[in-house]
Amino acid sequence: MRRSFALRLVPVLGVASLLLAACAPAPEQGGAAGGGEENADYCARMVTNSGGLEDRSFNQASWAGLEQAAEEFGIEADVLVSTSETDLEPNVDQAVGSGCQFVLTVGFELADATLAAAEANPEIHFSIVDEVVDAENVKPIVFDTAQASYLAGYLAAGVSKTGVVGTFGGGNQPPVTLFMDGFVDGVARYNEMHGAAVRVLGWDKAAQDGVFTGDFENVNLGKTTAQGLIDQGADVILPVAGQVGEGAAAAALEAGDVSLIWVDSDGYETLPEEYRPILLTSVIKNTTDAVVEIVGDDIDGTFSSDPFIGTLENGGVGIAPFHDLESLVPAELADELTQLQEDIISGAITVESPSAP
User: Fold this and answer.
1) Nearest 5°: CA angle at 296, between 295 and 302?
2) Whole-number mean pLDDT of the chain?
């Protein structure tokens, strides 16, 4: 019998660390996982977006979930790694051609290829991370990250010494701007509650426009973008740009008095150790457990195309521990964050965004 993977509430001060995935060659097949006898006739394939497997973000977390499912359920799983846009459709076709019952794709770049493959292969079940594809055999995995980044914005405002915080994105797309909307609203809530005037650089929620690097891979561009925010006084920065965010971490580390909020996974666990001293927290998507649960449902014959939406209530999103920077967060502020989370879950506070799933 399979173990239930119903997602739990993610405490404000803690969340399970996401598993690190082994690197796989690109764009060929990655290392296979599983091979038990319980469900030996079942197999799954995953296709990454062009950011590659070890992106310290949702590709890595999704593969960790598929690896965990392989171990838990005794299935065979493998990953096809995309390193450019030209790899995307061929890798989906290869995943479908493997004869596996389940195909997991990651990110908006794969939406069109996933829809085409799903329509052409109605007997195969698909799931896509961070994007909605409307088909009877595709289950979207999406996250209301605005709820968690609302907490992160409140935290950032509460620890800022300059009264200025900043954010930037990789591209002006709903999965990115959803983080930024919540962050801005969290800062506004702190200002309202404390009579403060903390400013946010990099995002205008009303105009739905702000600072973007234009890609999710150019680390050097991330560094210069973050440095521009630091030069304007920002001492807490939220990059929502995949690998580009590592450049922001480098800028924060060099500045010496700037802290970083990571996204998707706990950056304390996934980024190089040198950045641990500047990591305030992370806005987490619990992609790993969601993938395990969905694969388990498929094996049990209960797969549905109803979207999985990660929230604070079901533990699909949350913020990570403060780790080395816990001393920067007064007990009163931590208590306020706990209450905010409870108020969001109860509906006393509604976090809104035009990008909400």
Assistant:
1) 95
2) 89
pTM of the entire predicted model: 0.83
Q: How many of the other CB atoms lie within 10 Å of CB of 23?
A: 13
Q: Which residues contact 303 (CB under 8 A, 6 or more apart)?
A: 125, 139, 294, 297
Q: Three-state DSSP class for 228?
A: helix
Task: Please report the beta strands in 43-101, taking only residues with DSSP state E, as ranges in sequence order.
Answer: 43-47, 76-80
> CA–CA separation, 307 vs 50, rounded Å?
23
What percent of the chain clears pLDDT 90, i.e. is strictly above it?
81
CA dist 202 and 128 (Å) reads 29
Q: Tell me which amino acid residue 279 is.
A: L
Q: Name all domains of the chain by residue range, CATH numbers in brackets.
A: 33-143+287-310 (3.40.50.2300), 145-285+317-346 (3.40.50.2300)
* Residue 263 structure tokens: 């996204």
Point out which residues pair with 138 in neighbouring strands.
Answer: 126
What pLDDT score was predicted for residue 167? Answer: 98
